[in-house]
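Course assignment 3, question 2. Fill in each field.
Student: A.L.
Task: Predict the tertiary structure for the chain below.
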Amino acid sequence: MGPTGAGKTTIVNLLMRFYDVDGGAIRIDGSDIRDLPRDELRRKFGMVLQDTWLLAASIRDNILYGNLDATEEEVVAAAEAAHFDAFVRTLPEGYATHIDDDASNLSAGQRQLLTIARAFIADPAILILDEATSSVDTRTEVLIQEAMARLRKGRTSFVIAHRLSTIRNADSIIVMDHGRIVEQGDHDELLARRGFYHDLYRSQFTESFAETAGTPG
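Answer field:
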């Protein structure tokens, strides 16, 4: 976590080898990622990003993009795990529903749930979740958070977030500022240090409390 411009997305770009480090090394299970072919490396990752990208194709084909060899049963199971199946079944054409070129026939939350279903069916070893709930309403955010929690189970996950409630239960929180790691630890450790994370957490908590207090009962 960290403010805008801290370098969070740069780390993702380095993990995926969109460009390489010019010092040190990134290793997966002891292997330098520069020794792996890019396509082999990227198959290890699943990504759910703030800006979704979908094909102008059916919902089924969009989920299958995560694993072209998956069966119909696996497509449905992935959608169920992502809390997306119930919505699909309300559509006249179900999984055959065609998504517009700009995906305007799906809401922002529905697009996110679809990309989570795609990540489920890909079954990656490592997950990258980058601000995946930043543009949805509170009710949809709860569904997405539940789906992502299920998706993270048993996997190494990098969760990039501005909302600290998203990452407070992480095993390790890496705090970045101006391209550098300034703190690292779990939520309780970082609060106890009363440093950068503590100040940011308190400011978000205060803002949230003020918004709630100002809402008519």
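Instructor remarks: The chain has a mean pLDDT of 87. The longest strand covers residues 180-185.
Grade: pending
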